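Response to reviewer comment R2.3. The reviewers asked that we include at least one raw input/output pair. We reproduce the pair for Flagellar hook-associated protein 2 C-terminal domain-containing protein here without editing.
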Amino acid sequence: MIQSNINRPTLLQYIDNYRNGKNDLDDIVQKSKSNPTNDISSVNTSLSSLKSMEELVAQVTEGKTNVSATTISNMTEFYMKQVSGELNDTLKNYDLATMPDFAFKDGMWQSTASEELTEKQSQFLDYLNRDARLSTTMQQTLKLSELNELTHSQQLAATFDKKSFNDDEIKDYLLSTRTDTLNLSYFTISDSGVKVANAGIAQYGFDAVNKAKQS
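Raw output as returned:
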């Protein structure tokens, strides 16, 4: 029976280590567990619904919560490293190097590609659906990525040159980024590694809008 690697650093260890200016995950594993903090608890609570997530985005950008954009970014990075490592291990167990894009839909992981899956690809997804712990972590990673991009888009929107961009244009950027963030909430596994498809979409859209304005 294939087993996922569960001996990985905890989120709290990762956050505490980051705050101390250390980025070596091997050192984090050696640390004792810390007590939950309010900011991490608030972010985890927000993952249960998009509405609460968007409320948290507003609170973060308006400085009305102790959850910072940096904390959200760190949490997203932490979860992504966890998931990437475990998915790569699982891929090897099924002799796979890549996978068609896949998302969590209707309570299960399924391919978003139109082509039929191979037997091993189907077995890979079946395994993800059987491993409740890994599946939960992956779902949290997608939600964190959404939260991270929505928060980042709010930060970027505040830096638009008001002499060049009117309020409607800034609003269009935010709405477009929100739509793309939600539509691209799935995993991709290619030669370049394991990624969430919407990662970096806020910055990409911001750069594209600025470039178009300058042309």
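The first strand starts at residue 99 and ends at 105. Residues 92-214 form one domain. Further pairs are available on request from the corresponding author.
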